[in-house]
Amino acid sequence: MRLTDAQMNLLGDAGALVGFHASVISTFELELLAEVASRFRRGARSAEVTSSEWAVIEDAVGALRAAERRAPTGALGISEQGR
Length: 83
Description:
The chain has about 80 residues and is mainly α. The protein is built from three helices and no strands. It is globular and about 40 Å long. The two termini are about 20 Å apart.
């Protein structure tokens, strides 16, 4: 499937949060995020992501956002609100 605006925003959040909270996701999730980000950089609108990959990405970003909420001041102030 091609990426929607909401999915592109989610990938942006992942990119911002992974530098602060990568330890809360698995190596597999981290590598998948990197692979999809690479596809996105080569052609944002035409980047293809399977539904299985997207399910893993959503779970990983959920874990990253939860870690952000638990951080004392929040590394970036990114939350699920408004996304």
